[in-house]
Specification:
This protein has helices spanning 20-28, 53-56, 66-72, 83-98, 126-141, 153-159, 176-182, 193-201, 207-211, 215-222, 226-232, 263-284, 316-328, and strands at residues 12-17, 37-40, 48-51, 77-79, 104-108, 111-115, 145-150, 168-171, 249-260, 287-297, 302-308, 337-348, 360-361. β5 (104-108) and β6 form a beta hairpin. It is of the alpha+beta class. The strands form three sheets. The protein has a five-stranded mixed β-sheet with strand order 5-6-1-7-8. The chain has a five-stranded mixed β-sheet with strand order 11-10-12-9-13. The protein is globular and about 60 Å long.
Length: 364
């Protein structure tokens, strides 16, 4: 007989590696330890993929243009990414998780949710499980991890940021609602900058402000996300930890050294992107039905165009043809193009280990 565990008594851990890519590089190269480090490309159009804590002290962060990062931190050291190494370390970490629970939902290479309500060690206290996991990660990989422990995914995720780096925090059912009320909504997981700005226009700047709004108002104002916002404002999140979570898309993008105005030049840049996406699909024996092209202009505004086929794409040539056709629909370009991206979604044939991976950027 299956027994349903009450939502309020679940024990969820969110484990988040500290400055993962940068920490791996510092671990493997002693000369980089204690120094401001960015994983990414140092070229004029490069982007920071990850920053060490020494670099973060200068305001350097992921997704920042490399030239901006270098201006903030003149002594910043750039190291090219080694995704195969990061994936290998990530597998080691997942093997540690699996010693405690089969209910593991990876979010990326460096973070995951674990449901330890019923766990393989028979341990009753989730904070002790988190301590053990973090200690074992340190022993096996030499890297630090932080953790958040709570009764739902949203609060576990929020808790993992409270005592970073190399720490953990607990949010209990008793203090969960109060914790949310005092928090700025721009810090909520699931509320991006654009949504936070929209909320501000409605007078919503804290969890308490969000809680004051009715379910109907939030549904009308934020669509499908409305009920989620209504719940988390009250410390409620009924989402289960899903060990069968599969990736939603495969994508690659490139920021150009010089902006592009001509359609033929832009179309030529789609080929290496489509090829990189297709190589990943072939390696994981997957395909998809939806091709999406992302265009970022010189003023940093962007547009996307998508096309969904009745059957999964069967070759890189088909993906490239679809992407080229989509790009042509936005020509003449309203501004010069600084970045193009190609992604494949509505995936089929993906297995449970094919989780979300970083965007495959060619400018790193």
């Amino acid at each position: 007989m299956n027994v349903t565990v009450p939502i309020s008594t679940r024990k969820i851990i969110h484990v988040d590696m500290d400055a993962f890519y940068a920490s791996v590089e510092q671990r493997d190269n002693p000369d980089l330890r204690g120094r401001p480090l960015a994983v990414g490309g140092s070229a004029a159009r490069g982007v920071v993929a990850a920053a060490s804590y020494e670099a973060r002290a200068f305001g350097v962060h992921s997704a920042m243009p490399s030239v901006t990062a270098k201006r903030k931190c003149p002594d910043l050291i750039f190291v090219p990414p080694r995704f195969e190494v990061y994936k290998s370390v990530s597998r080691q970490i997942r093997e540690i998780f699996a010693e405690y629970t089969p209910l593991i939902e990876p979010l990326s290479l460096d973070e995951a949710y674990l449901d330890v309500t019923e766990n393989l060690k028979g341990m009753e206290i989730a904070t002790e499980i988190a301590l053990e996991i973090r200690a074992k990660i340190k022993q096996v990989t030499g890297l630090n991890a932080s953790a958040g422990i709570s009764y739902n995914k949203f609060l576990a995720k929020m808790a993992s940021d409270l005592n970073k780096p190399n720490g953990q925090a607990v949010i209990t059912p008793k203090n969960g609602p109060g914790f949310v009320e005092s928090l700025p909504v721009k810090k909520f997981h699931g509320v991006g900058p654009a949504t936070a700005e929209r909320m501000k226009k409605y007078g919503i700047e804290t969890g308490a402000d969000l809680k004051s709004k009715s379910l109907q108002f939030l549904a009308e104002s934020f669509g499908k996300s409305g009920p989620y916002f209504y719940g988390i404002a009250r410390g409620i999140d009924e989402r289960q930890v899903r060990p069968d979570r599969i990736r939603k898309s495969v994508g690659a993008e490139d920021t150009f050294v010089e902006d592009i105005d001509a359609l033929d030049l832009a179309t030529a840049e789609l080929r290496p992107l489509a090829e990189k996406v297709w190589r990943h699909c072939e390696a994981h024996r997957i395909s998809g039905k939806t091709v999406t092209v992302k265009i970022k202009y010189s003023d940093f505004t962007q547009a996307t165009r998508s096309r969904t086929a009745s059957l999964p794409y069967a070759s890189v040539a088909e993906v490239l043809a679809a992407a080229s056709g989509l790009l042509a629909t936005v020509y003449p370009f309203r501004r010069s193009v600084r970045l193009l991206g190609v992604s494949l979604s509505s995936l089929v044939g993906a297995g449970p280990d094919d989780v979300e991976q970083p965007q495959l950027g060619l400018d790193l």
